Amino acid sequence: SYVLTQPPSVSVAPGKTAKITCGGNNIGSKSVHWYQHKPGQAPKLVILNDSDRPSGIPDRFSGSNSGNTATLTINRVEAGDEADYYCQVWHSSPDHVIFGGGTKLTVL
Amino acid sequence: QVQLQESGPGLVTPSQTLSLTCTVSGGSVSSGLFYWTWVRQPAGKGLEWVGRVYTSGSPNYNPSLKSRVTISLDTSKNQFSLKLRSVTAADTAMYYCAGATYYGDSTLWGQGTLVSVSS
C-alpha cells in the first residue's frame, strides 16, 4: 500500500519560515493537498493540487511537489499558524484517499 | 452556501454497528458537485479517510475498513450516511463528514461528532 511520511513535529520562531515535508514513492506524479487542523475545529484545506491556494488562504502558504517529496512552506509564521498539518493524495487500485501521519507545527 | 451537519449516537456498544448521518443544507446531495465523504480521527492520532459516495457509481472505501463499512445517499432526506459494523474501541474517534472533489480535496466540512465505543 502507498504510504505518506511526515515528520511528527516542526518548530519555528515567529516571523520565520516553516517547511513541512511529505514523502511518498514518486509522489511528484500525484496531486498533493494540505490541511491545517486545529483542536476543536474541522480540517481546513490550505493547499490543493500541489501549489494552489483556496480562496481566503494567505499567500504566506505555498506548496511544491517533485520526486519523492512534497513540501508545504509557511512564510512569516504567525502564532495562529500553530496546528497539525496533513498531506493527502488520491491513490488508485483500489481508489482511495490517503493522509500522511500529520505534523505538529509549534510556534516558539 | 452548502453546510454539513453530522448526527448520531455518541456511544456505541462493542460489536454493534456505528451509524452516523450527515445532513446537507444549502445544496443537494444529488447535485453532482461533491463526493460525499467520511473522515475520522481517533484521539491522539491522525486523520483517516473512511470512504465516499457519489451520485453515480459505487462507493469507495478505505481498504483497511472496507469489510465493515457502508456509505450511502438518501436523496429524499438530502443526507448521506455511514455504517460501520462490528465496532471495537479502536473505532472510537471524531467523525467528520465532508464534500470533496474526485481527488479528495475538500473545503466543505461538518463540525465533527465524537463517537465512543464502550460497554
**What is the number of strand segments of chain A?**
9
User: Proportion of β residues of chain B?
Assistant: over 45%
Q: Give me the strand/helix succession of chain A.
A: EEEEEEEEE
Helical coverage of chain A, percent range: under 10%
Tally the beta strands of chain B: 11
Report the end-to-end length of chain A measured between terminal Cα atoms: 36 Å
For the largest beta-sheet of chain B, the strand count, sense and barrel status come to: 7 strands, mixed
Strand coverage percent of chain A = over 45%
Q: What is the first-to-last residue Cα distance of chain B?
A: 40 Å
Helicity range of chain B: under 10%
User: By helix and strand content of chain B, what is the structural category?
Assistant: mainly beta
* Biggest sheet record of chain A: 6 strands, mixed
The best one-word shape of chain A is globular
Gyration radius of chain A, in Å: 13 Å
Rg calc of chain B = 13 Å
Topology as H/E string of chain B?
Answer: EEEEEEEEEEE
The oligomeric state of the chains shown is: heterodimer
Describe this structure in words.
The complex is a heterodimer of chains A (108) and B (119). Chain A is mostly beta strands and 108 residues long. Chain A contains no helices and 9 strands. Chain A has strands at residues 9-12, 18-23, 32-37, 44-47, 61-66, 69-74, 83-91, 96-99, 103-107. In chain A, a hairpin with a 6-residue loop joins strand 3 and strand 4 (44-47). By secondary structure, chain B is mostly beta strands. In chain B, the strands form 2 sheets. In chain B, strands 2, 4, 5, 6, 9, 10 and 11 form a 7-stranded mixed β-sheet that branches. A 4-stranded antiparallel β-sheet of chain B has the order 1-3-8-7, with no helix packed on it. Chains A and B meet through strand 3, strand 7 and strand 8 of A and strand 5, strand 6 and strand 9 of B.
